[in-house]
Write a structure and sequence with these properties.
The complex is a heterodimer of chains A (738) and B (289).
Chain A (H helix, E strand, L loop, with lengths): L5 H10 L26 H12 L7 H15 L2 E2 L8 E2 L5 H18 L1 H12 L3 E2 L11 H21 L5 H29 L5 H12 L5 H19 L9 H14 L4 H18 L6 E5 L11 H13 L5 E6 L5 H12 L5 E5 H10 L4 H5 L2 E3 L3 E3 L6 E7 L2 H7 L24 H27 L2 H4 L3 H6 L1 H6 L13 E6 L1 H17 L5 H9 L6 H9 L9 H18 L12 E3 L6 H4 L31 H9 L12 E6 L6 H17 L4 E6 L2 H9 L8 E3 L4 E3 L5 H12 L3
Helix pairs in contact in A: 1-11, 2-3, 2-4, 3-4, 3-7, 4-5, 5-17, 6-7, 7-8, 8-9, 9-10, 9-11, 10-12, 11-12, 12-13, 13-27, 16-17, 21-24, 28-29
Chain B lengths: L1 E11 L7 E6 L20 E4 L9 H5 L5 E4 L2 E4 L9 H5 L5 E4 L1 E4 H9 L2 H7 L2 E6 L6 H13 L3 E6 L5 H7 L5 E5 L5 H8 L4 H12 L3 E8 L8 H8 L5 E8 L5 H7 L12 H9 L5
Parallel strand pairs in B: 2-8, 8-9, 9-10, 10-11, 11-12
Antiparallel strand pairs in B: 1-2, 1-7, 3-6, 4-5
The chains are: A alpha/beta (738), B alpha/beta (289).
Chain lengths: 738, 289
Amino acid sequence: MEYIKPQDYEYIMRKYHDPKIVNGNRMIRKDDIFDPSTGMDGDLIRSEILRRDKEFEHLPHPVRKAKAFEFVLKNTRISCTPLDLFPAINSIDRPVNGTLTDLWSSEVFTEIIPEVAKKRAYYEDAGIVTMWPDYDHSVPVWDRIFELGFSGLLNESEKARKKRPLTDDEDAFFEGIKITYTAIIDLVLRLAELAKNTAGSEKLAKALGNIAHNAPKTFYEALLVDYLYFMLSEHIEGLQVRSLSNFDRLLYPFYENDIQNGITEDELRTDLAYFFLQFTAIGNYWNQPVFLGGCKENDETEINELSYVFLDVYDKMNIYNPKIQIKVADSTPKDFILKALDMIRHGNNSIVFVSDSTMRKALVRAGATEEEARLCNVKGCYEYSIQGSMSCGMNYLNLLKPLEYALHEGCDGVTGEFAGRKSPKISEYTTFEDFYAEYKNQLCYIIDTAIETVNAYEDYLAYINPQSMLSATYPACLEKGIDALGGGATKNGSSLAPGFIGDLADSLAMIKKYVYDKKEVTLSEFVAMLDANYDGNELFRRKLVADRDKYGNNKELPDSFAKDIASFIAAYVCGRPNSKKRGGKWNCSFHVARMSYDQGELTAASPNGRLRGEELSKNCSSSMGQNREGATAAILSITKIDASEFTGDAALDLGLLPSAVKGDDGLEAMYGLLMTFINRGGHAMHINVFDADTLRDAQKNPDKYQDLQIRVCGWNVRWNNIDKVEQDGFIRQAESLV
Amino acid sequence: MKARIFEIKRFAVHDGDGIRTTVFFKGCHLKCVWCHNPEGIPSTPQLAYYKNKCIGCGECVTVCPQNAHRIENGMHVFEREKCIGCGKCTDVCLGDALIFYGREMTVSELLPLLLEDKEFYENSGGGVTLSGGECLMHADFCAELLKELKANGVHTAVDTCGFVSKAAIDKVMPYTDIFLYDLKSFDEDIHIKCTGQSNKIILENLKYIDDCGKKTEIRIPYVPGFNSGEIEKIAKFTKDLEHLTLVRVLPYHNYAGSKYESLEMENNLPKQLPTDEEIRIAEMHFADR
């Protein structure tokens, strides 16, 4: 691999996981990588956390958790080797979560609010709304981390602590930060000492020595800080780090300074490559995000020399993890976008484009200042929020369930259980409008239930999983003396993500067309067919599938439903208060993650001809195989939805044929698609370039396609690592490309 | 005024600059042995029947005024000789197995479809391309359509084989931004062998367009054993063209086989495909373009 020596590559790829284990997310390494004399093994660490905690039971959670964190950092095994520029830390199995947090979570859900837990479980198991206490959608304020370093963050926190008299809870908040950051600094020193005694690790030793008590000064030191923050938060303290930062904006000053000080570009590229490879090797399924671009205060682009170096190194390494988002603005250089598009079309497509102007418009509309909106983070897949905000709760709502209820007097279309509100008999819907109004009633009922449920447990997020590392980077938390999960952040939002707008819009269009306009079937006949999973009515089902009035083709009928439902939900949800303690507002997102499969399995046959259990549409995209008018029509349809009403995200999954994107023409065409999407107010776009023949061949001959990667839904996976059902779905999508 | 259209292709990427919509007109005077749009050759409407896509639903039987379709033992039987090309069956076909080539359309029917992707044209330097068949067999229609497109600020390209009258070219030229000009052979005998027609008019028309100061892009299908020896001569001939923007060598492919079958047209497609190396060498003749 370019930039990485072969023996180093082999070491790093084995560093975090036993190569024999395929899904090794957050599993601890138990063999020869770590010298036992450097610390305890993972099992002992966990049992010791619980044993020692008995002495601390009288203490508040932030302090107890910090003490456990401190214990892990003191005792986890560590390793340095000349084969790697980054140290290894053994405890990547979230030992603090696996012990204390789990305990507190189970206390809350089984003892304090068992009814809420039951509702939540029922909604998830029935495929209605998937809600969970979400510790997965925050980003630390990287500006402060790079500016202050670990010791500087500690000092700032202590300064804030001494500013005014504190309540016990507030003091515990600061004490948690103190213990946590002191432990981090001690770990850095311990690593520095080990590196010093490891021949060939002088560069690492020196840098660790510098960052223990200072802010990073070089590019490599900044990368180390980034890496260590990620490792300790994501894998030990237990909060996903949903971006490695606005990388080019924040790291360029270090890079530029190094170049001025005579460090070669080659060396900096090598540092970057070893940094990337850590995330490739950790290999978390959902991929590790990092973003580029945006605008300066005067609207000039943030794309700089480092942005190009970043893409170039990444491209040459042929990896897909970390994954990249690019904030595209009017000032973003075209050649930079073309470089990214070129990477995508030759198969290196772990890249999402997000519209700077749409995000800014949406955030300002939701109450952010222009400045906050400009500097917003892109995180996770394509989600975004202002810096220092804590958005929790990606609550995935299945838009097909209210349809089942409206057609079954409030009962689930699969199980027959009463799950919604009481709807009239279908014979009472004399007009389409009657039926559509009842659909909305059912939708509101589900939304209300979900919001009520989430609000009830989000009061306990900080109790279950207090976040000292993160809160120390949030100025508002320090000012208020409140944890980021307990309402301390600048904004404390929760998000509802309605899923499968494609299948819903098509289903509504088919009901309107065949029942009320053409009157080919009665609603009762239609419902009987759905209940029988179209058994005995294959011809009619084929007719529904073949019908061209489907969302994603710039057709008025289905598109108007997509637009209306999207606006309706945004108006109904955005701005509603979330939990009392958090004191924030609800917003909406438009992505589905894995719910296309997970909730799809639990969803009855739908009026667009989709069979029971089949995959549902992704994000804001058309339903399976139904984008028959091609890429331009897909973009015209999706941009009828006002993405700026969805302050979480709104993503389009675009499939393109290799023949359409070849040559200079093809590249320009991709650029034209992206720019039209953005000019029309779209938010996020990502692309799979594939054809059905290749995918079929890859399914038959996996050995030939070891490198083939596929964009699932905001992240990439090797083709060979997805199951056959998912592969078949992509083949169907590719077959429908024109 | 109406013309028979056999396809409207959106997001056409290789028919001129940028993102385009390409309109394919029916009818062509040439019969190129390698033709990959055989449905473009006859002026009459045609029904294509893709057997492997047919699900045997019988919907076509119910709408066909000629009883050209029937279901026998669960299998679909299509009698082409009875078909009058009304296209009704293609509207109800549930398997996309029946495709109608040659719908009659007016300019005002076409225009809104072609303007649908206008924003994409603007963001990519694209536009609308008229192609075929030979679109200039419908020169009056094309002129009217192109005029409307220009009035709407759309970039226009005309893809022609050049085997048309000068008058036809004159009609469309004022409203055409660029001609995409197909050139198959410089040698007349080879041209006749490959296409059934002399290339005299074709070469004259190309020169004429250039003399008028109109931009052209030349497109040469590269078919081993047929016109592969012509590249150098074409390069020499095109050297003097002042308004030539680009020469593309298009490697022959045989994807059209199933189309011939679906239309029950005789398939004499050449077997031999060009290698990448052949194409590379051919392109070198036009390296300065």
